[in-house]
Amino acid sequence: MTKSCLKSISPDALSGMIFALEGMRNAIVLLNGPMGCRFYHSTTSQFITEHPRLYLPLEEGGERVPVDYTFLNDWFFRQERVPSTYLDGYDYVYGTKEKVADALRYISQNIDFDLLAIVNSPGAALIGDNLLEIARSILGDRRSVMLESPGFSEPFELGYSEALRALLAQVGPALWRDGAGTAKGEGDAKSVNMLGLSIWHRYHEGDLKELRRLFDLCGIRVNACPCAGCTVEELSHLPQADLNVVLYPEMGLESARFLEETLGQPYYVCQVPPVGFAATERMFADICELLGVSDEAFMRESERARALSWYKIKQVDTLSGKPKGVMFHVSGNDSQVRAYAEFLTDYLGMVWADPEDAELVFADANLIAELMLKNKTFCGIEINLPGMGYIDLVSKTHLGIEGSLFLIEQVLNGLMSRL
Questions:
Q1: Which architecture does CATH list for 183-419?
Q2: Distance separating alpha carbons of residues 102 and 251, to the nearest angstrom
Q3: Strand, coil or helix: what is 176?
Q4: Labelling 39: which of 74, 143, 402, 415 has CA 20 to 30 A away?
Q5: Which of 17, 362, 23 is nearest to 208 (CA)?
Q6: How far apart are CA 149 and CA 152, in angstroms?
Q7: Using one digit for the tens of pLDDT, what is the confidence trace for 167-210?
Q8: SS3 category, 363
């Protein structure tokens, strides 16, 4: 087996912060930085399927009117997401206060939003402007989040983790103090919050839909999922949950600890995300036991799915002798790598390999495209963004029972296409 010579092209902590906060509905993330820092994030955001439109301020008794793209000519540069202060050399010498203030005035006067976040680029973090003071002077008591420093050469997951914790710490207490729906009635169904899901995950919409479905089979309600399509109203109900479920520790564990200290909520950390039957069954068995509910309906469905998958795998094995022994590679965060590798090796009998040697590569479009340019013969399966451009009209998932079946489907079809 050869040693991998590919260079890692992966998003950093700045991207993690931006896309964590972009995962809140009706939120605006203002990037305090140069144009070069915003273009990638603005462009990518527009291709993430679950994203709110921007609307004009609502007039009394009127209908919500979407913002026209041609109107977004200041700070947005006619892109709907991630406006920026387009800093230049002058600003790095004399400070960013004027540009930040002008951008906040423009946004607050012309666009309806529930949450506004300001994220410093690494260079802007060195200037030292007091973003909180600037924002308060213009936004008043409107909900806002300030992230002064994105870290330097830190991973995506760390940036996401810091942004999620900042959201809960800076916005949460006021919401929960206001008591917006925080009272849990006697006899109400058990409920959980999910921490660590991200709109950066390739099938985040389907992931959330599948997890809600499976929890519902167990009589458990999914209460809130911050930074993955969550509204501010849903965030206000976060204290109602009986348990916080940490799907990706590197992205959600610090926030779970914060909520335990602040609200007294216990948390459960998945050994690995629920990729594959065994990991999904383990997670739901543990959570159902903790909450004192039955997992019987869930287990019946999982058994049916296992039977279906065995039948299809056997068909392909008879024709080709695969997937057992097929070499694969997974590129993602630590939790993803462990989860996919556990499922592919233990359930399908596949073998880990470097990306140049693998028949199946589970990654984002950066690695898949790089291998294609090297004329490697393989099948690429996307698990994170950016994607290769495939447009999904039907929600898909790699998590839970449906996710296990879809992942097996991709593996089998990817292998059959190469016969």
A1: 3-Layer(aba) Sandwich (3.40)
A2: 33
A3: helix
A4: 143
A5: 23
A6: 8
A7: 999 999 999 986 554 455 556 789 999 999 999 999 999 999 99
A8: strand
Cβ atoms within 10 Å, residue 409:
13
Phi, psi of 199 (to 5 degrees): -70, -5
pTM given for the model: 0.92
The two tokens of residue 395 are 């929600």
Tokens for 92? 């790095």
Please state whether the peptide bond connecting residue 386 to the residue before it is cis, i.e. omega within 30 degrees of 0: yes
Nearest to 43 by CA among 397, 392, 371, 387: 387
| φ, ψ for residue 385, nearest 5 deg | -85, 160
The domains of the chain are located at 13-170, 183-419
- For residue 278, what are its two tokens? 């065994």
Q: Give the model confidence (pLDDT) of 242-300 as tens digits.
A: 999 999 999 999 999 999 999 999 999 999 999 999 999 999 999 999 999 999 999 99
The Cα-based distances of 332 to 211, 367, 395 in angstroms read 21, 10, 21
3-state secondary structure of 230: strand
Cis peptide before 323 (omega within 30 of 0): yes
Task: Average the pLDDT over each of 68-77, 293-302, 341-350, 391-400 and give the range with the smallest value.
Answer: 68-77
Q: What is the pLDDT of residue 410?
A: 97
Q: What does the DSSP 8-state code read for residue 12? A: B
- The sign of the dihedral angle between the CA atoms of 179, 182, 185, 186 is negative
DSSP string for 19-56: HHHHTBTTEEEEEES-HHHHHHHHHHHHTSSS-PPPBP
**Amino acid making up residue 261:** E
13-170: CATH class: alpha beta
Tokens standing for residue 325: 């022994």
Tell which residue, 315, 371, 383, has the closest CA to residue 344: 383
Backbone angles phi, psi at 49, to 5 degrees: -65, -40
- Asked whether the beta carbons of 255 and 261 are under 8 A apart, the reply is no
In angstroms, rounded to a whole number, what is the distance separating the alpha carbons of residues 116 and 145?
6
Mapped onto helix, strand or coil, the DSSP state of residue 7 is: coil
Comparing CA positions, the residue from 325, 332, 320, 339 lying closest to residue 407 is 339
The two structure tokens encoding residue 24? 């809140």
Q: Residue 63 CB: number of other CB atoms within 10 A?
A: 7
Question: Quick one: DSSP state of residue 359?
Answer: S
Both tokens of 48, joined, read 């993430």
- Residue 209: phi and psi, rounded to 5, are -60, -45
